[in-house]
Amino acid sequence: MVAAADPVDWRLAERVAKRVGGHEPFLDSYHYRSLAPELAELTAQAEEMVAAETGLKSMCGAARAQVTTRAGWVNANVASFQRLLRPVTDKMAERVSTSWFAPVAQRVSGTEMGAVLGWMSTRVLGQYDLLIIEDDRPEDQDMVYYVGPNVMALEHKHGFDPRQFRLWLALHETTHRAQFTGIEWLRPHFLGLVQEALDAAEPDLEHFKQVAKQVMEARRRGEDLLADGGLPALLATPEQKVALDRIGGMMSLLEGHGDITMDRAGANHIPDATRFARVLRHRRNSAKGVSKLVQRIIGIEAKLNQYAAGEAFIETVEARGGPEFLNRVWESSERLPTMTEIRNPQQWIDRVGGTPALAS
Question: Can you list the alpha helix ranges (DSSP code H) found in 22-139?
Answer without folding.
Answer: 30-33, 35-54, 70-84, 86-96, 102-121
